[in-house]
# Entry
Amino acid sequence: MLSPVIPHLVGAAKRRMRRGLAILFLLPVLPSFIPVAAQSSKRSTTLGDSLLALDRRWGQAYVIGDSAFVAELLAEDWIGWIDDRQQTKAAALAELRTDAPRLLEDIVDQATVRVFGSTAIVQAQERSRVPDSKRTGHWETRHITDVFINRQGRWMIVASHDSRIPNP
# Structure
């Protein structure tokens, strides 16, 4: 006479085997479900560093008046929100090309860069020394969020949001 435990063990073994076969069939497609950052952290770190460098260079463009760089970095359909006003690429470039006082210094730090395939988000703190009646200028601090996408092999910014915060 067979023990009542044997059929239970046989059934459990069959279930485990089916589960194992299902996992074997899924293995080739599993990488497509893992975020890009998890697939190759070294590549993402390097890409993240490059995107952060672009963001920092954008800030420096307002120090040195490099409108050509800004024209290349911002997508044609870029929209930026600076505090409570909206800005287009054309308006940003027009403002940069005027003889209006430029930033005296710009520092982007405390940054986080997240890459999601052909999209990336840079969030950081930006501190700018703005010209004023004093020759030294005054500091403004902002939280920034910039959304990059890769279009035709080139990273560009499609959306930005800057919110002024009290200086520490």
Q: What stands out?
A: The chain is about 40% helix and 40% strand. The chain has two domains: 1-33, 35-165.
